[in-house]
Specification:
By secondary structure, this protein is an alpha/beta fold. It has helices spanning 80-86, 90-105, 178-189, 215-225, 229-238; strands spanning 3-6, 37-38, 41-44, 54-60, 65-66, 75-77, 110-114, 123-128, 135-142, 149-159, 165-166, 176-177.
Length: 239
Amino acid sequence: MTRTAFSAVTALCVTLGCALVIDSATASIDSTYRLLRFDGQHVKWGEAELGAGAKVKYAFVDAPRQFAGARNCGVLVPIERLAIRHGISQATLQAEAAAAFRVWEQAANITFVPIDEPDRADILIGAQGHPAGRAYANVEYQSAGNDGVSVIDRAQICLNPYHGWKVGFDGNVDVYDIRYTLVHEIGHAIGLDHAGPSGQVMSFRYTEQFSDLQPGDLRGVQKLYGVSTQSMTADSAAD
């Protein structure tokens, strides 16, 4: 199947990056979340079926990489460039990324596995080789879908190494928290669009009003992948 790369930029993506196409057809019945929609198809990892779970591998790039046709994250470089500039250790960056992926794992039936081989990774993370904006995601998917759903082949997440970055909230919304930003970009990389200006993690304005997924974020990711098996196990144990 033909692999097609998409990720369009709106003016407000400089606030929080995106991998989206603005299309009135993307609006869901629940206005607190929106699913990405390309060529009339929703996109997700795993099976081409809404509600089906998935397992996704991710890695940090270890050398400059180019992605032909990508609107965002066209060139990724190792994240060390950002780490050194902002005094954040590589170990801390990796820990913050792992925590960001766990946020989505705890919400829906999607599992993320860190690997050390970027060539085998489904989601690649790095610094922007051509810095712009703050942070972005790029999604590549199979051009032929099934019942309105296409399968994601690969995604990239990139952070601008020249903007301010920090670990944790301190009230300064001009310097972005690494984990919160990655949670947002991972949301795009797994099939979620922006959910309006504020109120959800997937909203396009950076705020430090909450650190956990909000009700719309939960409904959106569970629409794509179903309820987390971790949650179901916990509920069964409680019964």
